[in-house]
């Protein structure tokens, strides 16, 4: 579902209002960016910043899988401490993820920055492939376009 496709006459301000309503009712929204020739798909939350939490990012996953992953972790983050960079977390029914601090949120989370300004913090949910390899390991199988990692392991941007 694409808001812009469903609302061809809608403006950017209309879209931001729609996001604000979603954030008020749900706690956050998920912004997806489609894959293009050079870059894999990616998605991120918008709205956790308003609750004093970092936004969450997933790269290299189709929108439905990225949304499910982000929604699952966002629900946890609202009720507990945000996972620290470097933490590895086995997800029930999902992959093992490692938390990586996003070095430059303003380069990737355009809509979150538009709503909340330059103070947005973000962490990436980096996932291991089906053989337990990470994107930084030789032999990682990350699908078409791979899984770009937007920061350094263990934090420190």
Can you give a write-up of this model?
- The chain has 157 residues and is α+β, with helices and mostly antiparallel strands.
- It has one domain (3-127).
- It has helices at residues 3-6, 12-26, 63-79, 110-116; strands at 29-33, 42-46, 55-59, 88-90, 96-101, 122-127.
- Strands 1-2-3-6-5-4 form a six-stranded mixed β-sheet, with helices on both faces.
- The radius of gyration is 15 Å and the shape is globular.
Number of individual domains: 1
| Approximate shape | globular
Please, what is the oligomeric state? single chain
Strand content: 15-25%
Rounded mean pLDDT is 88
Largest sheet: 6 strands, mixed
Order of helices and strands: HHEEEHEEHE
Poorly predicted parts: none
Blueprint (SSEs and pairs):
Elements (H helix, E strand, L loop, with lengths): L2 H4 L5 H15 L2 E5 L8 E5 L8 E5 L3 H17 L8 E3 L5 E6 L8 H7 L5 E6 L30
Pfam families: DUF4262
InterPro entries: DUF4262 (IPR025358)
Organism: Amycolatopsis minnesotensis
Keywords:
157 residues; alpha+beta; six-stranded mixed sheet; 4 helices; 27% helix; DUF4262; DUF4262 domain-containing protein
Structure, briefly:
This protein is of the alpha+beta class and 157 residues long. It has four helices and six strands. This is DUF4262 domain-containing protein.
